[in-house]
Amino acid sequence: MIAGCGIPLLLVCWLPAAGQPRKDLCDDEDLSRTSPRHTDWARGGRTRSRRGARRANQVEPDSTQTVRGIAEEIILRLEELDGLGRSPYDQKEYPTEAGALAYSYAIDTEKFKYVVLKLCVEAGVDLLFHTYVCDSIAEQGALRGIVVENKSGRQAVLAQATIDATGDADVAARAGASFWQARGNEAPRLTDGIMYRIQFGQSRPSGVFACDFGRNAVVWGPGLPAIDATNADELSRAETEARLRIYDDFAGKQREHPELTDARVIETPPLLGIRQTRFVEGEYKLTAQDAISGRRFEDVVAISSCPIISYYGYRRYLDHEGYDIPYRCLVPKGIDDLLIAGRCISSEQQPYESHRAMAPIMAIGQAAGAAAALSVESGAHPRGIDVKRLQQLLRSQGAELRLGTGDEG
């Protein structure tokens, strides 16, 4: 997707959300392994390609909606279209109102696609679908643009500022940016899997079942061992395995829940839910201590209050209302005119397992977009923009930054 709005700004993104079945706006964790009723789900963001907004924590303290801005606008528009289902998370009930949203939502992804496309058109975004990044154009320590391939052939797209929103840092890696990546089981990491949508028959499980839309639900499906999702062969083999296991997985759910006897699988996603690959080395790298202590930063552009879901061997909730994500985590070392958005920002494993959730990821994406626009407008490299001005812009767009309310530094 190429974002123009009258300025030479390029957003490169991979959008699996557009094809995924309806799903929870919170987490992509396979919790079927922990609870047959799935009541122990404790994420705080969005799922692996869905979007949303939420309050601070699933657990106390829970007084501040830490993600607002564009994410909140999407949720409110979905509410108008009856595009919200019931989240499987054990959470407090809140009205679906600006500044008072609940911890998590399930969303109808067909209506989600409509809403975000409409937002893009209303904003004057120059969209280019069915287009894939082939290479990055970097020279003299700066990214000048990218090479893409689509129905029109191979093209070069030049820009003053480019945002890598591929999730896998494809643009950054091809531009020569430094990154780290866990290989196999060499270190604690998150693994991947697939979800699918089922339609209930004459009966259905009582209460909220998975990502629940009344007549149908999206459920967590087969998980996979650790793979390198930046390797085409490994990715293809893993997806083949996951897809061939879906109906066995569903049969297991039917045995566990007799109410699903006459239910059926009606939709599978176009690709696996990939949870982690590359992490770009930025001007600052978030640490485990930052997340656990709730550290505040002067250059805050987003907040995460989600639990660290796996690294410690259990779902580690934060005992504060969230840690700051500094702008420097979006700025790669050694390459100008490039910004990073999504799960591949500069971070250690532990905080990543928190801010990878969709709510903070959307806030990070909004920050990257605003920063790129300021970079182009001012003529400064992204690493040299006025961060206070960026924060002012984000706040004017409805973002929550908690400025002036803590120990930023």
Report on this model:
With 409 residues, the chain is of the alpha+beta class. It has 2 domains: 9-15 and 121-182 and 277-396, no CATH class; 29-108 and 186-267, no CATH class. Helix content is 24%, strand content 19%. The chain has helices spanning 69-80, 109-122, 170-174, 232-244, 246-256, 288-293, 349-355, 358-378, 387-396, and strands at 9-13, 23-24, 84-85, 106-107, 132-139, 142-150, 153-158, 161-165, 179-180, 193-199, 211-212, 216-223, 264-267, 279-280, 300-304, 323-326, 338-340. The strands form 6 sheets. The protein has a 4-stranded antiparallel β-sheet with strand order 11-12-10-13. A hairpin with a 3-residue loop joins β11 and β12 (216-223). The protein is globular, with a radius of gyration of 20 Å.
Q: What key attributes describe this structure?
A:
alpha+beta, 409 residues, 2 domains, three-stranded parallel beta sheet, 19% strand, 9 helices, four-stranded antiparallel beta sheet, disordered N terminus
Question: What is the structure about, briefly put?
Answer:
With 409 residues, the protein is α+β, with helices and mostly antiparallel strands.
Please state how the strands of the largest beta sheet are arranged side by side. 11-12-10-13
Query: End-to-end distance, in Å?
Result: 35 Å
Q: How many independent structural domains? A: 2
Q: SSE order, as H and E?
A: EEHEEHEEEEHEEEEHHEEHEEEHHH
Which structural category do the helix and sheet elements fall into?
alpha+beta
Q: What ranges have pLDDT less than 50 throughout 5 or more consecutive residues?
A: 1-8, 14-54
